[in-house]
Amino acid sequence: MTDVNSSTVDTPSPTRLREALPRASVFTLALLLTVYLGLSGGGFDIIVRSELGLVIWWLVLLGALIGLLPRAPLPRAAWIVIALLAGFLLWSWIGLSWSSSHGLTLATVGQLSTYLGLLALGICVVATDTATALLGGLAAGIALVSGLAVLSKLTPSLFPANDAASFYATARLSYPFDYADGVGEFAALGIPLLAHFAGGARSLLARALAAAGLPLVLLCLAMTVSRGGILATVIGLGCFLALSPDRLPRLSALAVTAAGIAVLMAALLTRPQLRDSLRIAPAAQRHSMLVITLVVVLACAAAQALLTLAGRRVKRPRALRVSREAARRVAISIAVLIAAAVVVAFASGFAAHEWRSFKQVNASAHSNQYFRLLSLAGSHRYQYWQAAFHAFESSPLHGIGPGTFRFYWAAHQTIGEYVQNAHSLWFETLAETGLVGIVLLGGFFLFTVIAGAIRALRSTEPAARALLATAVAGVAAFCGAASFDWVWQIGVIPMIAMLLVAVAVLHG
Predict the structure, then answer these.
(1) Nearest C-alpha neighbor of 261 from the set 221, 306, 225
(2) Alpha carbons 486 and 384: distance in angstroms, whole number
(3) Residue 1: its pLDDT value, please?
(4) Contacts of 434 (CB under 8 A, 6+ apart)
(5) C-alpha–C-alpha distance, residues 132 and 470, integer Å
(6) Residue 165: its pLDDT value, please?
(7) Which residue stretches of the chain have pLDDT < 70?
(8) CA distances from 384 to 164, 295, 301, 414, 431 (A)
(9) 189: which residues sit within 8 A by CB, 6+ positions away?
(10) pTM (2 decimals)?
(11) Are the C-beta atoms of residues 475 and 503 closer than 8 Å to each other?
């Protein structure tokens, strides 16, 4: 006889498993890609990038052949970004005909092929049920790598290869990329992602874990003393808050984070040997900082969990309910204040003074490295950009050839320094691929940010709008970092950007 109650037993059904498998697979893929590239020197090495590109393209092709990919019909916006990036790849390949180095140009083409493959993979796997999983995997990967970076400073004995691999001596946190600014800009991309989950995830555990990751990622950024990372953070958070729905939970999560990072910064700044010394800091300073970090991380997780529980059980007061019209008025007021500040800066001569400071070769030396944040000295960037623009002027239509800026710099530089990149994706693209190249690559990112922002603001579904806001904020943060550094060559950072582009053009 059949048990009449057997049908009521709560067991995982095949349907539920089939629904959960794509989310788990996408989350794991994003996490593993971020951690693998992050711990492989950031993916700067051409061998690492090339091997990854082959694997990615095989995944896309096999998935398409067996009918698993793409998981949803591709909208027009997806085809546009694919066409723009593929057009830039093709133009760079054509650049072999005028390049002064076929080897460097082919290396650039291979790099772009990997990025195009990552974009294609992201577009193929993103659907309504997997977009959150993709962002979650990226957020978890960035938090994990940032946490390991902080540990390399606080427990250096666990990272014996770190000192041997160092390219240049610096007190700033540079593990695992051996480039402090790159680590800071990588961490900056994770801040809007973690802020999204800390203030908007459905699961209480997910909110607590994201809240725990935020101060850790910010501490990583702070220890790099990266001005480019700070710029990317400001841009990313600004876009995230401007586009997000129901900002109160997100502002609450950021307030918890602000309190946590304030404690961590106070602890860091009072430990000068940990902060500024090229040598390993005394164990007392390192271990006490580690304990404080763990306490703050756990406290932020607990505080966010309590705030979430309170928000679910206590009805929000009428004064804290902000209509879309009221939010629009606040946004306009903030924009007016920013515009007024810009006008005052130019009228008072402050902007001219800071521009002269930026053109200086280096910031003034100081025993406390955090004083570099008070200076806008460009660390040779003005000279790099000037040379890149002159290279563009020498061949404005097609540029001097992909990957060959280093040759133009070596022939025309006046400061006695060897560099490979112009420390700005936009200036370097202009120099190496001319007007055609900057229209294609610049159009790729500009279209993503504008189209994603418009769709976020027009969306009537809060969950979809939140995901779009997060993805667009991450892409905008990448664009800010790429304006002042060579993050395009640090493979893990463009990889994150490509996957965020996929969410920005597909979800909603």
Answers:
(1) 221
(2) 12
(3) 38
(4) 392, 395, 396, 397, 398, 399
(5) 10
(6) 47
(7) 1-15, 17-18, 160-169, 316-324, 326-328, 331, 361-368, 371, 374, 378, 507-508
(8) 29, 43, 43, 10, 11
(9) 142, 232, 236, 474, 477, 478, 481, 493, 496, 497
(10) 0.92
(11) no
Which H/E stretch holds residue 81? helix 76-94
Give the count of beta carbons closer than 10 Å to the beta carbon of residue 426: 18
- Residue 353 has what pLDDT? 75
pLDDT of residue 294: 97
Contact (CB, 8 A) for 24 and 140: no
What is the pLDDT, as a whole number, of residue 140?
A: 97
Do residues 438 and 474 lie in contact, with contact meaning Cβ atoms separated by under 8 Å? no
Structure tokens belonging to residue 347: 């009228």
- Output the CA torsion 112→117→123→124 (10° steps): 170
Residue with tokens 């579904």: 461
Q: Under a CB-based contact definition with an 8 Å cutoff, are residues 60 and 69 in contact? A: yes
d(CA 233, CA 193): 11
- Helices 381-394 and 425-458: angle between axes, nearest 10 degrees: 100
- CA gap 488, 424 in Å, rounded: 9
Instruction: Please tell me the predicted confidence (pLDDT) of residue 161.
Output: 63
Retrieve residue 452's tokens. Answer: 């994603």
- Residues of the chain with pLDDT > 70, as a percent, come to 89
Q: Terminal CA-to-CA distance of the chain, rounded, Å?
A: 50
**Cα-flanking dihedrals φ and ψ of residue 397, to 5°?**
-75, -55
CA distance 390 to 374: 30
User: Which pLDDT score, from 0 to 100, does residue 5 have?
Assistant: 43
SS3 sequence, 200-266? HCCCHHHHHHHHHHHHHHHHHHHHHCCHHHHHHHHHHHHHHHHHCCCHHHHHHHHHHHHHHHHHHHH
pLDDT at 68: 82
| CB 476, CB 235: distance < 8 Å | yes
Give the chain's length: 508
Per-residue model confidence (pLDDT) at position 318? 64
Burial of residue 463, with CB atoms counted within 10 A of its CB: 0-12 exposed, 13-18 middle, 19 or more buried:
middle
SS3 28: helix
